[in-house]
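Demo today. Your pick:
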Amino acid sequence: MFNTANYQNVPQHILDTLMAWGKRECLHLSDTYAELLSNDLFGFMNRADDEMIQALPQIVKFIANELPIGCYGTEQNLFFWQQECLDLSPSPDANNVK
């Protein structure tokens, strides 16, 4: 689903988090990832570690080229993406069906 070959300078754990979000496997993002994905550059730069800052150009290219358009861009997009993820998650009572 995601082509990571062109993003060798991005640490694998960062790609893993972004891919999980894009595949709706990640229901919660840290503030750093939320700021990155919602285009809050100032917030991101204030929280990000040196590893993320160094890889930022490639991370942005990965987001723009590989992630589904609806899962990034604004806080509202992130909210709706997360809500859709929650709607797709099994309910807590799913194992107690009689």
User: Anything to note?
Assistant: Residues 12-88 form one domain.
